[in-house]
């Protein structure tokens, strides 16, 4: 039995086209299995890009195998889809906030967050001055905000109501 291999630039996920390493694939006795995070919400027996969902784990990732009843996409077709997705992603990033709007959004975010006493003590222990520590704010995973911020702000959830981080820490 072989191990799952993460996706990369030369080996994309045939289900979603991911190249970041989130999805994984393995060939086990001639049958290919794909663990796809991007299509984690797929239901059993759903067919996506010629691959059939054979299981789902808490909607975090889904297991796919080649569906013999549907036509397969060639490597070139998958590459074309990937280029199209990347172009759409670049366009989305370029449509971000201009510097003035981004500064306004960051000011709004800073006004809604405070510095936790444990984080303050940690920063002071590290030798930062009290004036520098005043600029820091603590964040929690997917922390809800009291006032919506522009959703295109980097680090803010798509609804503008949450800080988009899965880790606890502090920001400047």
Automatic annotation (TrEMBL):
Residues 68-104 are annotated as: Disordered. Residues 95-104 have a biased composition (Polar residues). Residues 74-92 have a biased composition (Basic and acidic residues). This is Uncharacterized protein.
